Amino acid sequence: MRASAAAANTRSDGAFEALFRREFAPLVRALTLVAGDREAAADAVQDAFVQAHRHRERVLTLDSPVGWLRHVALNRIRNQQRGQERQRRALPRLVEAGSVLPERGLEADGLGLLATLSPQQRAAAALYYLLDQPTHLVAEHLGVTEATVRSHLRAARRRLQHDLEEEEV
Amino acid sequence: MNNDWDEDDHEVRAQLLLAADNIAVDVDVEWAQLVDVLAGERAVLASLPRTQSLPRFRLGRPLLVAAAIVIVLLALRPTIVEVAVTVADRLAETVGLAPEEDAGLAPLPPSTTIRPVILLPPTTVPQPPPTTIPPPPPLTTLPVAAPPSTDLAHSPILDGNEYRLTLRRVHDQLNQAIGFGRTNYEALAGSDRLVEDLLGQQPRFDSQLRDTIGHLRQAQRARDRAAASQAHTIIDGVQKQLATEAQ
Predict the structure, then answer these.
(1) Quick one: which of A32, A110, B22, B193 could link to A41 by a disulfide (CB 3.0–4.6 Å)?
(2) What is the pLDDT of residues B86-101, one digit of tens each?
(3) B78 CA to chain A: closest CA distance, Å?
(4) What is the nearest CA distance from A25 to chain B, expressed in angstroms?
(5) Other residues' Cβ atoms within 10 Å of the Cβ of residue B214
(6) What's B136's DSSP letter?
């Protein structure tokens, strides 16, 4: 009995490691675009994998384990952003009115093109195009209406196409 | 998921993926970090049962004991009540008070009845030296304001008269059977034979005692409360008459 349980554990540990090696990097990259911060994205995805390991027997049998991970990591990012927003409101004199918290990593990661988008446009584009979230979930995540999301996506598309055309020229 | 993409959407997605690929991610390093975190978590979980077991037992044992006591008390409640009533009856007899549960008479409120009360000297009071203060009298009797008729059936039988003691025993059985609204007719077992043994000893009461025997048997046979009550009334009357004569 104990031997078969150990064998099952080994099997699930192996599957869990394979899931991590396959999905960690794409998730971190997409969430970096959402959060505007590579470290915050990596922390959120790590946290999601820790939680997945606690429930690995169940998570590994889901139709889409990566969907579960994406959901947990996005929640973590959203909570983090709410905390930052509260912090910003609590310290109005230290941060200029209307500005957002400084983002780290985008320039260093060579994402100059995406850095021309506003944070909301970039997050909407990443959620929609890279994480395959429907517009109503993108709206829920960003705390805006679905119409606003569509507007962000249109603006992001125009901007990127414009920049690409300029680069080509 | 987003099947309604047009060509532009695919182009934008491709550009985003291309840009995202520039974000450096070292999966091996991240995996090593995750393994460390999971190992730490496992260590914390392994230490939890030892630290949590103590408070759980500390609270659990007294709760279990208290629950067991409550259950035993609830289970024994009828017995406890019965024993308490019996003890109170005996105590009242010893002190000279009529028991309140007398089956034939409804208990009167204490404010309307004054009964003779004999107070015993407190046992904890030290005895004063006999040379200076005379010792208190052993028994103090309060003035009797009510007619003694209701108490004669329960007054102490000091002369050891077997006839009166037997009547008292039957009276007690009747109180056990129907006192306080009880319907414990099994308590009357043997009472008719006790009364039967008295026949001929005091011929003037024989007629009443025969009636009593009939009532007692009817009460046991048919669980007849009225019959038991009549037996009680007759016994009570005979007891009072004998007590008056003894005084």
Answers:
(1) A32
(2) 888 788 777 655 544 5
(3) 53
(4) 6
(5) 15
(6) P
**pLDDT at B112 > cutoff 50:** no
Q: Is the pTM of this model over 0.90?
A: no
Flag whether the ipTM exceeds 0.85. no
- Amino acid at the residue A100: V
C-alpha–C-alpha distance, residues B196 and B189, integer Å = 13
In DSSP terms, B118 is beta-bridged to B141
CA atoms of B208 and B233, how far apart (whole Å): 10
- For tokens 């979930």, the residue is A137
On chain A, the residues whose CB falls within 8 A of the CB of B21 are: 29
> With an 8 Å Cβ cutoff, are B16 and A114 in contact?
yes
- Tell if the CB–CB gap between A24 and B20 is shorter than 8 Å: no
CA–CA separation, B32 vs B34, rounded Å?
Answer: 5
Question: Which regions of A64-157 does DSSP assign to beta strands (E)?
Answer: none
Q: A50, B9: Cβ pair inside 8 Å?
A: no
> Which of B102, B149, B105, B141 is CA-nearest to residue B244?
B149
| Site from B4, B28, B34 to mutate, A interface, most A CB atoms within 10 angstroms | B34
How far apart CA B246 and CA B148 sit, in angstroms, is 14
Interface membership of B9 toward A (CB under 8 Å): yes
Instruction: Tell me whether B12 touches chain A (CB under 8 Å).
Output: yes
According to the model, what pLDDT value does residue A102 have?
A: 47
Query: What DSSP line would sit under A78-135, residue for residue?
Result: HHHHHHHHHHHHH-TTTS-TT--PPP-STTTTT-HHHHTS-HHHHHHHIIIIIS---H
Q: Which of B8, B23, B30 sits opposite A161 (nearest CB)?
A: B8
Interval B36-63: pLDDT, tens: 888 888 888 777 765 555 555 567 788 8
Does A129 contact B25 at a Cβ distance shorter than 8 Å? no
- Min Cα distance B50 → chain A (Å) is 21
Quote the tokens at residue B86.
Answer: 């019996």
pLDDT in tens, B113-172: 445 555 555 555 555 555 555 555 555 444 444 454 456 666 666 677 889 999 999 999
Contact pairs from chain A to chain B, CB under 8 Å = 85
**Which amino acid is present at B222?**
A
Distance linking the first and last C-alpha atoms of chain B = 110
Give CA–CA dist A104/A49, Å, rounded: 23
Q: Mind giving me the DSSP string for B8-72? A: HHHHHHHHHHHHHTTS---HHHHHHHHHHHHHHHHHHHHHHHHHHHHHHHHHHHHHHHHHHHHHH
CA distance A99 to chain B (A): 25
